[in-house]
């Protein structure tokens, strides 16, 4: 039997060993020098170049924009752009799933690389685990390069998870930017990652999301965004993190991945088969795009990942400037909505200035992350007292059949909000990867478009208002007794609707913690 003296000694030794283990995990990878930066410009001779010349005056600063409002459109347009690429594809994503749509787009990128297109894929490390084999196979292609932003030194097992605790400040600096640029002429940015649930192809959970396709000069600005992260000393070549397959074995697997994209496909979306179909489809999109003045704003990667993240980043500053200049109305659509004292104080006395602020976000029933909902719930009352009109999405919203181009998925599953847009006075549209929350303000890298187009701003504003309608959302308010009330066409309820006891309890307990900056 252990004596009383031995037990405390073993406990102390165990703590020392555990602390040593944590300290080892806390050491991040050293910064990399990628060498001289090569100039990148738009491609002089391609289908997208012809479309740019056809639809835009080369002397004008305007770009042209098209809203990708359904996941089906977003998937089909990306597929078509890959088919028409002549020289270069740069894709930057927070999440790229190894599912049907993720593998299909990966396979078409391989097919593009086979015909000589240079493909660069930049991924945030936080969601790479479990998908390494797909990316390692792609990296083995001589025309495909993949880098991982801010990787954990431990690639799997307990060490990887411990690094999230021991290296907390660095790990929380994520690349949430999402851009897809073809030949420097056409780009897509917005809220969508790559995966079935973003493209209306999931049978249980589909995200209501929104992207913007851009033709013209701002596609070059998206390339600048991509290059800033590609050349970052915190972006690591995949081959330095994972063992790549042998060339002969990789060649067979790459050919199989590419061939699988020409066989009968499991999608409800009619993806274009071949270059001619792709060009015909895109020509229709380009003809309908709206020309407007706009700017692209992005947050560059931090020089020091462990430096205090206590100042708003570029995209947040752009949003605050637009808020200050708003005259009548601000409409907010944000998957995660978390504003604390500092932000709310900047919106003090909204009603006295005649400025209406209405926001729609996820309810507890539709939020894919209870933790994120708890951060919103912590500040929900303060937002209401500040004069916000708050709406929370219903999981059974009939609007699903308007937003998700897969009626079967709407009937069988749940719709969740993932889009991120703010409309100012129905004149200016702020849209991209930026959630109106503390993480996007202080920690993440984000990319947004500020588009000065009443036509596009009104279209998004009307869609937000449809989402706020009683059949699609609950309106949250304070009754005369100061209690929270959820109102819909079905009446009033006094607790988080359509959510079970344990989910409500988890959200309530988490809301007691001051962790909203990291949600």
UniProtKB/TrEMBL annotation:
One Pfam entry name: PLDc_2
Gene3D superfamilies the record matches: Endonuclease Chain A
Domain PLD phosphodiesterase: 171-198, 413-440
Source species, domain of life: Bacteria
Name by which UniProt lists this protein: Phospholipase D family protein
